[in-house]
Amino acid sequence: MPLPLRTRRSAFTLIELLVVIAIIAILAAILFPVFAQAREKARQTACLSNQKQLGLAWMQYAQDYDESLPLVSFADMGVAATEEISWTRSLQPYIKNKALLRCPSDDGPRWQDDAVQADPTRFVSSYAYNAWLKADVTYGTLPSLQMPASVICLTESADAAPKDHFAPYFWAYDADFAAGAGSPWYAGAYAGMHAGSFDDTKNEPTNIALRRHNGGFNALYADGHAKWSKWSQVWWQDTTLTPPVIHGNFDPRQR
C-alpha cells in the first residue's frame, strides 16, 4: 500500500521577507514626506483663510473710522500704548474670534509664555502688522495708498517675535523717511533696531516667518486679498522713484 504524499507547506524565505521589508521602507520614505507636505498645505490654506477674514475686518474698521487704519501696541510718535491701541484688539468687534489670530503651523514660545499672554495691550497673534500703515503715520489711511493691491499690511511673524507689528523701515535704511516722518528719532534708532530685526548676511528679516509654509509665507494686502509668496518675490527696491521705494511690497510709497 503506497504511503500518502505529505503536503509541503509554503513559507517566505528570509530573503523574501527582507525584500518585502525593504519595499515597505522605500514606500514609507517616499510617502511620508508627501503626507507631511499635504498636511502643511492644509495648514497653509487655513492660515490664508485666517488672513482673508482679518482682511475683511481690517476693511470694515477702515470704513467705520473714516478710512483710518488700525494702530499697534507701540508707544511712539506721541501716542501712548493703551489696551485699545493694538490692531489685535481693535479688530475683535469685527471678527469676534481670537482663534483667527493663530496660524495652525505656529507652535512658537509666545503661546506658552504667561507674560506675553497676560499683556493687556494686545492679544497674542501669529500675525504682525506693517508699522508703515498704522494710523498715526503718513500712510495710515486707505486714500494715502496709491497701489493697495501691492502693499502688504499683515503677515506672519517669526516664532520668537512677540510684537504685534514689524517695521520695514528698520530693515533697510531710508534717507527719505529719516528726513521726513522719521525725524528726528529714526536715525538714532536705526542701528539697534536694524540689528535686532534684519540679517544682512542673508538679506532678510528675522522677525517674519519667511518659510513657515512650504518655503514661503502668507501675507494680507491692503486691498483685502491674501496670498502665499516667497521672500525674493516681495523684497525689492526702486530708487528711480521720488520718494524711492526701499522696502519692496512692504513699502506704501509704491505707485
Structure write-up:
- There is one protein chain.
- The chain is α+β, with helices and mostly antiparallel strands and 255 residues long.
- The chain has one domain.
- 33% of the residues lie in helices and 9% in strands.
- The chain has 7 helices and 7 strands.
- The strands form 2 sheets. Strands 3-1-2-6-7 form a 5-stranded mixed β-sheet. Strands 4-5 form a two-stranded antiparallel sheet.
- A hairpin with a 4-residue loop joins strand 6 and strand 7.
- The longest helix has 51 residues.
- It is elongated and about 110 Å long.
- The mean pLDDT is 87.
Strand order of the largest sheet: 3-1-2-6-7
Largest sheet: 5 strands, mixed
Structural class: alpha+beta
Any idea how many domains?
Answer: 1
Order of helices and strands: HHHHEEEHHEEEEH
* Gyration radius from CA atoms, angstroms: 26 Å
What are the segments in which pLDDT stays under 50 over at least 5 consecutive residues?
none
Total E-strand runs: 7
Question: Total helix count?
Answer: 7
Q: Whole-number average pLDDT?
A: 87
Strand content: 5-15%
Assembly level? single chain
Overall helicity: 25-40%
Give the overall shape: elongated
What is the straight-line distance between the termini?
104 Å
